[in-house]
Amino acid sequence: MKALAGYLLAALVLSALAFVLGSYQTDVYRKLLLWITLALGYNFLFGIAGQVAFSHFAFYGIGAYAILILLFQVGLPLPLAILVGIAVCVVLSLLVAIPATRLEGFYLALATLAFAQLFVVVLNEGRSITGGTGGLANYRLPDVLGVRITGPWYTVVIVLLMLGTLALLWRLDKSWFGRACRAVRDDAQAAQAMGVNVARTKIIAYAITSALAGVAGMVYAFVDNTVSPVTFGLENVFQLLFMVIVGGSGRHAGAIVGAVLLYLLPVFLSPLIGHHHALVFGLVMVAVVLFQPKGLIGIWDYWVARWRAA
Amino acid sequence: MRDFLELVVSATASGCVYALVALAYLLMTRPTGIINFAVGEWAMVGAFGGFLLLSRFPIPYPVAIGLVLLGMFVVGGLTERLTVRPLVEAGAPPLAPILALLGMLVVFRELISVSFGPDPQPVPPAFGFGRLELGLLAGSHQSFFIIAVTAVVFTGVWYFFERTLAGKSFEAVAIDRRAAALMGINLRLVTALAFCAGGAVAGLAGLLVSPNVSAHYLMGLPLAIQGFTALVIGGVGRVEGALLGGLILAFVEQFTVRYAPVPPGLAMGVPLVLLIGFLLLRPTGLLLAREARA
Fold first, then answer.
1. Which of A110, A187, A273, A292 is the best mutation test for B, with the most CBs of B within 10 A?
2. Angle at the Cα of A31 (from A30 to A33), degrees rounded to 5?
3. Distance between CA B246 and CA B238 in Å, rounded?
4. CA-CA distance, B22 to B236, in Å (whole number)?
5. pLDDT band at B290 (very low <50, low <70, confident <90, very high)
6. Would you call A226 an interface residue with chain B, using a CB distance cutoff of 8 Å?
7. Domains of chain A: which residue ranges?
8. Contact status of A114 with chain B (Cβ, < 8 Å)
9. Which of the 8 DSSP states describes residue B293?
């Protein structure tokens, strides 16, 4: 009950914010919420399930392209397009995950990296279906029950997406499945001995987080009302990894802190020092790995522990 | 036929560049288990070293190549000292140094971008832009130069690992770190030298490829990925594997672009499919590592 009240309050506050922001701030705010959503999912995959995969942004793109193709080229109604889009993400993620779970550590990273690049190649060569290098544009969200959702109301949709993702992953993390994921991450052999099906746990964690990235991509498709291959390139996957590590991997709060910090860093630093912000970003990353392996959330934990002890 | 043989020469030359990058990975990953994705950025730094020493303040090519090798040797060693050793000695999980090096990748790229700007910079080839014809084989001077240098490097590294005691100690660390340390091998020194050598080899690869592609701050990541693909194809266990993997990758790449009936954009996907295929069907690569002998 308390949790539900907390989510409601957060939804109200974050939605209220949408109605007071100007158009530039709204754009930044929407993208920030999407980054947080992605970082939460990636945190579950990397931080909690311990899989180093670089396909997360590709599934974000698959979701975005899938819903547009299903809506405007296949001609499905919106609810059906969403369901079929999710099914596409799940099927593709299973196709990647089932063979890839045989691979250990960095080989999984490489297989998913190749998959992500292959996705961009396919987008560029997809002719009229994907719009090639220019991508897709000139469309808008179909009316839902006769209502057109635009402006701040669409930002509310993104707020709900973010909170829904958080709630789902939180519950999952607290369930037996979350514990199984952590057990597999820490010691696959010991987990196996305890009766955890290691392969199945890995595959389900990968499929769920990939599907969540796909749903976020569907919402993203109507943020800029244009999608193009550049958005889903490799740079952003590394950004996502860095967000989770800088914030504190394995912690939902860490993913949120990392996403907010690394997304807003260039927004605030660019006007001050131009392109140098990317250098600051790299140095922050190295410093965190070296001196604060638990991420920035570890500093918070330290002070809370000291305050409790005092 | 001429066309075919010309393609063979150019594919061999780019295969040699991939092979050098793969060798840089291998030198570091064999004794330490650390995969250093910053090798691509090291190659880029080597290319900019070439730009400084050959285009901006021109000095003779042999001196420049020596200075680049020396400089990159130091860069590799410093990177190890600052980001890898503290983590290894603190007993951090194996992923930590890999992530720290990913951060260094960004740092190297942005340092170069900040100091040289976003435009590509020219680097001259070793023997001018001429063409060389050896019987039926024809190609640019630089292609033949790349092939010759790579042959020398691989022969040297092979000789080092197979025939010298120091090389054997590297191999011993690769097979069993603990046992090697108990035998009195200095793990710290081996790790440091592995990164120094990795830096030098990666820098050399960048210097060699830069006349064709120009020194550019974004040239690193593609090289890093192609080098790793080559390594996966050939196998991480053996020096010859890196060479074999690089050549296979470059031949597949260039021959599909030229002869396969697919659009050039899709042909770019062929090496990726090859990589996925190798990862799934033969993750150990073509050549297997030597087992420890009883």
1. A110
2. 65
3. 13
4. 9
5. low
6. no
7. 2-232, 234-310
8. yes
9. P
Instruction: Count the domains in chain B.
Output: 1
Say which of A105, A241, A278 has its CB closest to residue B110: A278
Smallest Cα distance from B132 to chain A, Å: 35
Q: Best interface-test mutation with A: which of B105, B272, B273, B281 has the largest number of A CBs within 10 A?
A: B272
Query: pTM here?
Result: 0.88
State the residue range of the domain holding B25: 17-219
Could you give the ipTM of this predicted complex? 0.83
Instruction: Give the tens place of pLDDT for each residue, B214-254.
Output: 888 888 888 998 898 898 888 877 888 899 999 999 999 88
Calculate how close chain A gets to B110, using CA atoms only, in Å.
5
Q: Please report, rounded to a whole number, the percentage of residues in chain A having pLDDT higher than 70.
A: 98
B237: closest CA of chain A, how far (Å)? 15
- What is the distance in angstroms between the Cα of A170 and the nearest Cα belonging to chain B? 25
- Does a structural domain hold residue B241? no
For residue A105, what pLDDT is reported?
A: 62
What pLDDT is recorded for position B253?
87
Name residues 40-59 of chain A within 8 A of B (Cβ): 52
